[in-house]
Amino acid sequence: MILVTGGAGFIGANFVLDWLAQSDEPVVNLDKLTYAGNLENLGPLQDDPRHVFVRGDIADRALVARLLERYRPRAVVHFAAESHVDRSIQGAADFVQTNIVGTYALLEAVRAHWAALEPAERSAFRFLHVSTDEVYGSLEPGEPAFTETRRYEPNSPYSASKAASDHLVRAWHHTYGLPVLTTNCSNNYGPYQFPEKLIPLMIVHALADQPLPVYGDGLQVRDWLYVGDHCAAIRRVLEAGVPGEVYNIGGRQEKTNIEIVRTLCALLDEWRPRADGRSYATQITHVRDRPGHDRRYAIDARKIERELGWTPAETFDTGIRKTVRWYLDHPDWVARVQSGAYRQWVQTQYAAL
Ligand code: NAD
User: Fold this and answer.
1) Is the CB–ligand 1 distance for residue 13 below 6 Å?
2) One-character DSSP codes across 255-316
3) Model confidence over 113-138: pLDDT tens digits?
4) Which of 31, 49, 78, 154 is 20 to 30 Å apart from 16, CA to CA?
5) DSSP secondary-structure letter at 217?
6) 200 lines ligand 1 (CB under 6 A)
7) What domains can be seen in the chain, in order of their start residue?
8) 11-57 pLDDT, tens per residue?
9) pTM for the full model?
10) Which residue intervals define the domain NAD(P)-binding in the entry (predicted)?
C-alpha cells in the first residue's frame, strides 16, 4: 500500500492511474477536492478495490495519523498543493496554508508513524515530496539549466511556498532521519490538466472561439515534460532513489509560450478546422504580462538519467499530439470542469478581453 496526497489533481490522478495500471499494490488517496481536484479524473478506478479515496486535508494531522495507522503504507507520495501561480499572486493564503503548513503537518504525522515502525519497515519507508523547478527562480538566455545544487531563488508566492516545503522536507531528513526523496520537475502537460494552465486553457479557448491570451511578448521559456514521463520518473525515484537526495526531472524540451500556442493552433487547424477556414492563430491576443513573470526555466536532468536510468519516452512533438487528441476526445470532461467556479476565475483573469 502507498499513500498518495493530491491524487485527484492533474499529476496525482495520472500517477494513481499509471500506478494501478502497472502494479497491484493498492493506493490510499487523500485529497481535499479543492477546485483543482476532480474525482472524475479517477473514473476508471470507480469500482476498483485497489483504490481507496479519502476526502480530507493534509493539514489534518489526526486524520493523516488515522490513515497511516489503518493502512500502514510503505511510502507516501506527496502531490497535494495549491499549484497555480496566477492564483498565488491574487492571494497567497491558501498556498501558505496547504503548501507550507499542510506539508509540515503531514511530515509530523508521518514522522510519528515512521518512528514507531519495526526497524526493517522503518528503513524501507519513503516519503517522496513532489516539487517544481520554479523554486530555482529564473534563468537568463544561454545560462546553464538548473542542477540539483542550484541556489533557491523563488520569485512568486507559489514558488516561495514550494521552496519552503522543500526545505521542511530536507530538514525532516537531516534532523530526524526521515527517509525523504524530493523531485523538482519542469512544467507538465497531458490529460486531466485543469484548463487554467497554459496548454488546456488554449485548447479550450480555441475550440470555444474565444481569444487566446498570451502574456506579454510570449517569449517566456519553459521546459515541458509529458505527465506520463513525470509519473514514470517518480516511480523510479521511489524504487531506487537514495533517501535525502534531490532529483531534477525534465525533458530537455525548452519552448517559448508563443511557440506552444502556435503549435496548438496548427494541430487544431489540422484536426478540427474552424468553420470559417481561418487559422486558430487569428484568436491569439497578447495581454499584460504576469507581475514578476520568470523568463526562463530549464532542467538539467542528468542526475536521474545517470543514477536511476530514467529517460522520458515522449518528445514535445509526440506528447503534445497525444494531449490535444485527449482534449478533443473528452469534451464531456472539459465541459464539466468548466463549472461556475472556473468561469468566474477566467473572468477575473481575462475580463478585459
Ligand atoms: P493540481 O492543482 O492539479 O492538483 C492538486 C491536488 O491537490 C488537487 O486534487 C487538490 O484537491 C489537492 N489539494 C490541494 N490542497 C490540498 C490539501 N490541503 N489537502 C489535500 N489535498 C489537497 O496540481 P498538479 O499540477 O497536479 O501538481 C501536483 C504537484 O506537482 C504539486 O505539488 C505541484 O507543485 C507539483 N508540480 C506541478 C507541476 C506542473 O506542471 N503542474 C510541475 C512540477 C511540480
Assistant:
1) no
2) EEHHHHHHHHHHHHHHHS--TTS--GGGGEEEEPPPTT---B--B--HHHHHHH----S--H
3) 999 999 999 999 999 999 999 999 99
4) 154
5) T
6) no
7) 2-187+226-250+293-313 (3.40.50.720)
8) 999 999 999 999 999 999 999 999 999 998 998 998 999 999 999 99
9) 0.95
10) 3-323
SS3 assignment, position 139: coil
| Ligand 1 center from residue 195 Cα (angstroms) | 14
Residue 134 appears among annotated catalytic residues: yes
Query: Among 104, 136, 158, 189, which one carries the catalytic annotation?
Result: 158
Distance in angstroms (rounded) separating the CA atoms of residues 108 and 105:
5
Q: Which residue's CA is the nearest one to ligand 1's atom 15?
A: 81
SS3 of residue 17 by DSSP: helix
Question: What's the distance, CA 29 to chain centroid?
Answer: 16
Segment among 15-29, 283-297, 333-347 with least mean pLDDT: 333-347
Are the C-beta atoms of residues 67 and 3 closer than 8 Å to each other? yes
What is the value of ipTM here, to two decimals?
0.99
Query: Which residue out of 39, 83, 249 has the highest number of ligand 1 atoms within 8 Å of its CB and is therefore the one to mutate?
Result: 83
Give the three cell numbers for residue 44: 476508471
**Residue 48 annotated as catalytic:** no
Instruction: Record the cell numbers describing residue 165, joined without a space.
Output: 516545503
